[in-house]
Amino acid sequence: VQSFNNVSLCISLSHVDLFSPQNAGDIESTLNILNVLDELLSAGTDRRITYMISKGGSEALLSALVTTARTFSPNFTILLPLLHLLAKVGHRDRRIGMKAEKAEAVLPTLTLLKQNVKHTRRTAACLWVLQVFCSSVTTATLLGQNRGLDVIFRLIPPHTTRHKRTVKAAIDALAALLCSKANVRAAVANGYVSALLKLYEDWHNKDPDHETIPIRLALLHCLHQTTHCSAGRDALVAQGGISLLYHTIQTCLASNGLESLVEPAVQLMRKCYPKCPLPLTSDQSVYTFPLPGRPTDTAPGPQDVSFEDDSDDDIENEEDDDLESDVNKLRSRPEPDRPLEQLGQYVRLCPELHHDFQDLDSDSEVDSSSEEEVEGDQDGKGEPPENHLQACDFHSHFLSSASVKQDSHPSMVDRLLEKHGACIPHHDPRMYTAAAALTKSIPEYSILAFPDFWGHLPPQSKEPMAGRKPNVQRKKVFEDVQRLLNPEDVIDEVVFDLEDPSSQGSPDHSDSLSFFSKFECGNLRKAVHVRRYYDLILNADANCSQHHQWFYFEVSGMAANVPYRFNIINCEKANSQFNYGMQPVLYSVREALEGRPNWLRTGTEVCYYRNSFCPSRGQKSSSFYTLTFTVTFKHNEDVCYLAYHYPYTYSALQSHLQVLQRSVDPRKLFFRQQSLCNTLAGNPCPLVTITACPPSKSWKDLHQLRNRPCVVLTARVHPGESNASWVMKGTLEFLCSSDPVAEALREAYIFKIIPMLNPDGVINGTHRCSLNGEDLNRQWMKPDPVLSPTIYHAKGFLYYLNSIGKTPLVFCDYHGHSRKKNVFLYGCSVKETVWQSGSAVNTATLKEDPGYRTIPKTLDRIAPAFSFNSCNYLVEKSREATARVVVWREMGVLRSYTMESTYNGCDQGVFKGMQTGTGELEEMGVKFCQSLLSLRRNTMLYNRRVISQPTLLNLDDNLLDHKSRNCFEDDEPPCVEEIEYRNDSFPEPNRNDLDSEVNGNTSSAEEEEDDEEEHQTTGNSRRRSMKSRLYPHLIGQETLNIKRSPCNGMNISNGQYLS
How would you class 9 by CB atoms within 10 Å of its CB: exposed for 0-12, middle for 13-18, buried for 19 or more? Predict the structure, then answer.
């Protein structure tokens, strides 16, 4: 307390006329006040300085500065400590620049600088004060208007061993001045970029002992500032700046202790790398589909360019003002969007309610269309000899969806199955081939991808998240820069182009890989062999020009044990789990034929960062990101497939449903596959009903069946979220199994399942949209029956269930999440939304059924991949048209969820540090079903096998076996390497560094000043010679002509201050 009182006393004294000393006693008193203030403020933390600022300390010091500077012969015995103290205080005062302008202290300080350029201590003190003044952009602009840039720039010499503190102060002040766009433009126009590059090179080359690292770092800061505008970046490139930076970085990397110089130089190099349009004829997708009611020659409308996470409920980054705070709106039930009379069409989708079960011994009805098979081609062109089947023979061109032959000659499929045999549970290659033949796509696929045809088994062991080597991204950036510096090494050969059929064969150069993606779910638009790596460009979603994330393609022609680098260069998201241990997946045909049909995580040196590419025809300000990874293939001439995540095609779903249909006992299990509707392209959208058959035809048993509550499950509204389909696969197989819990669930519920809400998007390899170019999960509020038929009829079916008194007990939409780990649920709660929004409504008075938390709590106890604390139940305005919110609000479903599954892995529990595979995803589908027991455990009659599993029944007695983070915390820490290259990427100056510089300037150095004057004459000629080579435009400017300032009315000319 006493120290704060002393500070207040000193401030009070500073307001009296002590800063206009008339005699030696006054000077001594003033110095005492300054020394006491400096000692008080230097001790302890910044609290004292903050206190001084709050009490008007900055204004007092500025007033003293102006008063002292206006004297005919300023007394630097007082001015020097005053300037030092003002620099220390001003560095911590955010408003110091505006205060300096108000006190009319800016231009007098600039005048003091010019008058004392021969006195290094005074010069440094003035520079530090000007630096802190420039925390205000208007102050920096004022100094620039009065030639402050030239004054300060002339104080930066080529390499010297003398007065390094003053040199650094000048560079720091110049960097501070360049916070103003007007100053940046002036600096670029006056050739400062070229001069700064030469200065940086000179200080770099003449500093073998690394004694001037702070000066070199400060010069990099100036270059960062000058490249805030495009003209500055162009100037740096034109002057060979990227080459200079690249080679100086290599020198720094070869020496210890220079890491502080490397990262700013790398970021500067990335920022100035010339923008390069993607080598495409158009940004629009290769695939276009004529939409009903729209002219075929009309281009799609402008797309939403916000590349946020594809999760429907990516809540952690939402601002509170996005939360719905209107209680009435949250609780209101909107009127149906269609007349009640239209709901009659959905009666057919509830066959279990009208079936009389007259013949419980007969098989369930089977949709005849699902049994059809298509005759294949009869010529068998291009098939390899039957006795020499190798991996290279199964290039996708040889595996046709029409290869089910009816003649005596065995097809590729027949010979393949005869030699190797099908080995995947619930998968029949012939049935898959038949289903694929019925699938309708925009490019009319006729080729099957081998993994989809042959099937996949989860690997026997868990796959850990990939480790990240230090500075792996930097290494990739250097390889990208070498492309610019050494264009003669660039091969630049297009080895695959979806728009050019001639490029889809073997490449001209035998040492290039072959690519292919024209199959179901495939997405690769173009592949370019650059140098020792390949640039890959993804196709946009159909009928639009964005949403690049999902990829799935074939690669062949590789050599074993040779690393191949792949760069996917038109990703859109600002960050990715690829920076946190996630890897792409790979499937090898050779491995599959040898009995290991597994999709495996693959890739080393995986990283994700912003690149220099821009749309081919769009705004150059738009950014893309590179996903880069290196794959070393195990076999020569193998055929492999790479994908963003484990693919799951529409044809796989259709064949899987047929296999399940055949596997169930129709006397015990009611399984009915129907078509909800047809998609835009004419593909049926399947709806599956699963429940238990009644034990008899008695009225009591039929009544019990028809009064079972409904559970509605949907998935794959976003085509790129293939993990949702694997979760759904686990759900379907479990519900059709003989597991006692599955039997109990079938006896308790009627399951209505739409396993793929966006078949067209899945088929055509899109990431987010359907063929209408829209996100279907933003159409639930008012879906268009023509353009969004699956959503329109799914909502209509839910309306129908509601109208007949069978409102679903649970609705869950399965999704994938690209930026978070684990599996979690998003639900809807009025109380939690109102509370989190900061509304004035007293949430204690709101009554709400807490049952929406039952399933998440249950899953947290039984599912190792599930994170309860990552769940939340907020209703945002931006998500009001999603399935989760619409079903909750309009249908009144309390337990309306989105279940998000990670693409990466888990950071908790038994799966911690492991990437999720299809086995874990399918298990999650099982666990979700099991969690439904908790809703009816008091009313269900369990058989003995269920009772023997207390984990599922005594849920409240189980302890959590893992801890989860709060959902409002960031899922990941900042990436170890800077993904972006922004204008503000240069690290903020350290306050303690400035304090140290100032304190070092307070030591007695009159000998230094005398020494400087002594050497002035002898060194003048050499200094002028060096300066003329670096910046000739400044030679001959011996006077400072300062413009009139509109801010304070001061007029300074020829370096003289006119009071």
Answer: middle
Distance (Å, whole) CA 774 – CA 303: 9
Assigned token pair, 540: 């946009």
Strands 552-556 and 599-601: unpaired
Distance (Å, whole) CA 523 – CA 541: 10
Query: What is the spatial distance between Cα 557 and Cα 392, in angstroms, rounded to a whole number?
Result: 8
Helix (H, G, I), strand (E, B) or coil at 824: strand
pLDDT band at 1044 (very low <50, low <70, confident <90, very high): very low
* DSSP letter, residue 515: E
The whole-angstrom separation of Cα 80 and Cα 61 is: 12
Using the structure block, give the residue that is written with the tokens 């602009």.
141
Q: Tokens in use for 19?
A: 């800063």
Running DSSP on this structure, what letter comes out for residue 896?
A: E
> 237 falls in which pLDDT band (50, 70, 90)?
very high
Quick one: which H or E segment has residue 197?
helix 192-205
Can you tell me the distance from the alpha carbon of 360 to that of 258, in angstroms, rounded to the nearest whole number? 80
* Spatial distance between the Cα atoms of 861 and 957, rounded to a whole number of angstroms: 10
Q: How far is CA 44 from the centre of its chain?
A: 41
> What are the two backbone dihedrals, phi and then psi, of residue 828, each rounded to the nearest 5 degrees?
-135, 130
Angle at 633 between CA 627 and CA 636, to 5 degrees: 140
pLDDT at residue number 995 = 80
| pLDDT single digits (tens) 333-348 | 889 999 999 999 999 9
| 651/23: higher pLDDT | 651
- Token pair of 547 as six digits: 């949403």
Give residue 209's identity as a one-letter amino acid code: D
- Give CA separation, 279 vs 134, 394, 537, 613, in Å: 43, 31, 9, 10
Using alpha carbons, select from 313, 304, 754, 724 the residue that is nearest to residue 541.
304
pLDDT of residue 13: 45
Q: Say if CB 839 and CB 321 are below 8 A apart.
A: no
Residues facing 690 on adjacent strands: 671, 751
CB 1012 within 8 A of CB 120: yes
Q: How many CB atoms lie within 10 A of CB 451?
A: 26
* Of 119, 130, 106, 42, nearest in space to 77 by CA: 119
Q: At 193, which amino acid appears?
A: V
How many Cα atoms within 13 Å fall on the side-chain side of residue 769? 21
Q: Which residues does 737 contact at the CB level (< 8 Å), separation at least 6?
A: none
Element (H, E) at 375: none
Contacts with 999 (C-beta within 8 Å, 6 or more apart), sequence order: 42
Structure tokens at 356: 């009389």
- DSSP of 11-57, one letter per residue? HHHHTTGGGS--SHHHHHHHHHHHHHHHHHHHSS-THHHHHHHHTTH
The answer to whether the CB of 159 falls within 8 A of the CB of 208 is: no
Dihedrals φ, ψ of 366, to 5°?
-125, 130
Instruction: Please state, in angstroms and rounded to a whole number, the distance separating the CA atoms of residues 473 and 605.
Output: 8
Residue at token pair 């102006």: 66
C-alpha 575/C-alpha 974 separation (Å) is: 10
**Residues carrying an active site annotation:** 900
Q: What is the DSSP string of 683-738?
A: -EEEEEEEEEPPSSSSHHHHHHHHTSPEEEEEE-SSTT-HHHHHHHHHHHHHHTS-
Residue 564 pairs in a beta bridge with 631
pLDDT tens by residue, 140-189: 999 999 999 999 999 999 999 999 999 999 999 999 999 999 999 999 99
**Single pTM value for the model:** 0.86
> How far is it, in rounded angstroms, from Cα 1008 to Cα 1014?
10
Helix, strand, coil percentages for the chain (3-state, nearest 5): 45, 10, 45
DSSP H stretches of helix in 576-712: 589-593, 650-663, 699-706
